[in-house]
Amino acid sequence: MPRRILEIGSGIATGYATQVLTSVGWDVTKVIPSGYDSLAEMESRWGGGRGGASLFLDKNKRVVDSNNFDISINSENFDVVIGDFSERNLHQFELPASVFDSLKVGCSLISLTSFGLDQSLSNRAHSDLILQAASSLLYLTGEHHQAPQQLPPYTAEMSGGLAASSAVIASVRAYRLDKQVRRIDLSIVEALAIHSFTQSASYVHRGEIARREPEVKEGLRVVPTLDGYVYCAPGATASMRMDGLADLINEPRLKSEKFQTAEGRKNNYEEFVNLFVPPFKQLSAMEWFLRAEELHLTFSLIRTIDELFSCEQLNERGIWSEMKTQTGDTVRIPGAPFFSEPTF
Fold first, then answer.
1. Secondary structure E strands in 103-247
2. Which of 143, 190, 203, 249 has the highest CB neighbour count under 10 A?
């Protein structure tokens, strides 16, 4: 029997958490602040500012206005209630900050906020870029001589949403075992910090602060071609040999012993780059990809966004769907990040 979820608010993080669960049959009712749906109002990036965010995140949900739905009374009719329970967000619903401790639910009550429910933090501004910065992810991307690099828009909130969907499933399974209702305080920044665990572990155990990639490297992973870029690292850069790549780009000097170890490539980095990079600019990315495939080398095309939408594999698997907005525009949105069907 499908589980019932009450989603409070119109944020991306909670919206994606419940959207993932609708894909496996969960029934979601979403309550938005009276007269305002922040997803429908989004003017940039997502869906070309034409309501694409709302179509994607609210698909297969029942959306109701808070004026027509009493959260305090109706919450106990749901197995799970999830939302941003920060004081700032609850103010839009005219709910007290204490509601997180008093709301009655079937299995679990989950608060998904930027910094957690600590009163000194929960009302901070929380753009996606701020969350990426606060979790250290910005510091770990790009090269050391660059400024920290922003990850794709909404990476932080959608990652927080995935963590929340996992928390939902775990809490419901736990309830089956002990019949205990759980209140879960989930912080997006803390969920993101898990991605930098290996770097933080180095600091805890050895006092080393992880840096972005150095200018002089153990090898190259991405190189420019005639019309784009290819990923071209045959294995870990610390241990890869140059024999196969030397044959691929017809540059026998790369077979020199000094280029066969990470230390050798770093000590002769300028010469290594001057031999390695220029040949790739002679052919297209696809031509290099096909040639590398013949030599059983680990290569990958680096797709642009338009190439992503025309990808034969994604189209064959039916990941995209087109929907009409309220203004009559057509937007293309992805489906669930997995396929699911019952077995008998």
1. 108-113, 182-187, 222-224, 229-231
2. 249
